[in-house]
């Protein structure tokens, strides 16, 4: 646990990346739980209209992340790309503050803020480049520790918003806070992000055209692995969807149980992510991913069966341990698919996330149609296991990794 934390503290670039990711986590933790309430209750969107906003936002976020990653690799101007992405955060939230109406909300949440989300991929791309000077085990453990720093604000920030709203704060106050946090992120990048062309590692333009970059990223070998790694995360999406619903349906459970269960899982995930280096000293990355998948899938399958019993609280352990692995190690796996193209590798993280969310949404829809929320959890676990074993089969072949991400 101490080695990645030491690197995050002593390496100036990794320290900056850690701070940037923590700030971005504050942004996500502040808006994610309340965006639907803002859309429907404050700005008056219908359920269907808000669904369209979400679909457009998902498409724009992927296009923006891929475009930013390709541009960063083509020009090796990563600081400029990151700074523009961060400025979009301030612009988008500032627009809603200045013009709080339905049209502004739709424009900002379907276009401006999804484009700004490219910053997360660029932070991980920078961290991967900075970690190239360290052993492979340190790199994976450090990237896992960075992912933990993104999760920490969800444990800290959400209770603060709960207190603020309890004291009478308006939901629109979120945008004022987002402008301030976004401004802090812009300032951090401007002052501490390594200047383009003057990094401690070699970072040269890729020389690839847009078409060539897209062909490389969209090759069957790469995209199949990205989609399957997204399948690993689909179970997490299903869990987030069904958690409140199954607790609400269960006799003797209430909304307070939902918050307690989710808080315990999120809180336990952080130290597990920070301890990833110790696990990777004993098993390979793919073996660790399989272990995490088995634990999380087991949790999902047992969840509806144990929900009405006190034993359901024991499930926070496999949920946290498995979730910490599934949410962190596939990040490095996907980035490595693009080899030296760190920007493109970071961009593929957005594709991975959308693939996982889309597959999870499909699993939930099928289960809800056939049986109910309990079946959704079980199918989510089965989908995760199928994805993990497919990845093991693909990368277990002798020719599996040839040609992927070669410069």
Distinctive features:
Growth Hormone, Chain: A, mainly alpha
Describe the protein's architecture and organization.
This is Major Facilitator Superfamily protein. One of its GO terms (molecular function) is transmembrane transporter activity. It is found in: Cell membrane. Keywords: Cell membrane, Membrane, Sugar transport, Transmembrane, Transmembrane helix, Transport. The structure is a single chain. With 407 residues, the protein is mostly helical. The chain folds into two domains: 1-207, Growth Hormone, Chain: A (Up-down Bundle), CATH 1.20.1250; 208-398, Growth Hormone, Chain: A. The chain contains 17 helices and no strands. The chain has helices at 2-10, 12-31, 35-42, 47-75, 78-98, 102-116, 118-131, 136-166, 173-192, 210-217, 220-249, 255-274, 276-280, 285-306, 316-336, 342-370, 373-396. Helix 4 runs parallel beside helix 7 and helix 7 packs across helix 16. The longest helix has 31 residues, at 136-166. The two termini are 33 Å apart.
């Amino acid at each position: 646990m101490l080695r990645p934390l030491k690197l995050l503290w002593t390496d100036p670039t990794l320290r900056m990346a850690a701070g940037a990711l923590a700030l971005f986590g504050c942004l996500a933790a502040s808006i994610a739980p309340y965006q639907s309430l803002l859309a429907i209750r404050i700005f008056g969107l219908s359920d269907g209209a808000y669904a369209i906003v979400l679909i457009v936002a998902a498409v724009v976020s992927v296009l923006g992340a891929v475009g930013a990653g390709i541009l960063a690799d083509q020009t090796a101007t990563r600081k400029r790309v990151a700074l523009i992405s961060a400025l979009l955060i301030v612009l988008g939230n500032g627009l809603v503050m200045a013009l709080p109406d339905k049209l502004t909300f739709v424009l900002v949440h379907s276009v401006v803020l999804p484009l700004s989300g490219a910053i997360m991929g660029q932070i991980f791309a920078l961290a991967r480049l900075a970690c190239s000077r360290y052993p492979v085990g340190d790199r994976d453990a450090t990237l896992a520790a960075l992912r933990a720093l993104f999760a920490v604000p969800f444990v800290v920030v959400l209770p603060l918003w709960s207190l603020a709203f309890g004291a009478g704060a308006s939901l629109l106050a979120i945008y004022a806070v987002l402008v301030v946090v976004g401004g802090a992120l812009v300032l951090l990048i401007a002052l501490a992000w390594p200047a383009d062309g003057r990094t401690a590692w070699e970072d040269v333009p890729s020389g690839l055209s847009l078409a060539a970059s897209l062909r490389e990223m969209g090759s069957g070998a790469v995209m199949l692995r990205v989609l399957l790694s997204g399948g690993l995360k689909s179970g997490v999406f299903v869990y987030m969807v069904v958690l409140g619903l199954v607790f609400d349906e269960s006799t003797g459970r209430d909304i307070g149980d939902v918050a307690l269960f989710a808080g315990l899982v999120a809180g336990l995930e952080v130290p597990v992510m920070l301890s990833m280096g110790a696990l990777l000293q004993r098993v390979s990355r793919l073996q660790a991913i399989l272990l995490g998948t088995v634990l999380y899938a087991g949790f999902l399958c047992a969840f509806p069966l144990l929900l009405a019993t006190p034993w359901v609280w024991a499930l926070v352990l496999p949920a946290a341990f498995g979730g910490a692995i599934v949410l962190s190690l596939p990040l490095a796996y996907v980035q490595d698919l693009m080899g030296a193209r760190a920007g493109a590798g970071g961009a593929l993280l957005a594709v991975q996330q959308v693939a996982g969310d889309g597959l999870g949404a499909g699993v939930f829809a099928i289960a809800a149609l056939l049986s109910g929320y309990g079946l959704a959890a079980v199918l989510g676990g089965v989908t995760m296991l199928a994805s993990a074993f497919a990845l093991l089969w693909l990368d277990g072949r002798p020719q599996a990794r040839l040609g992927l991400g070669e410069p």
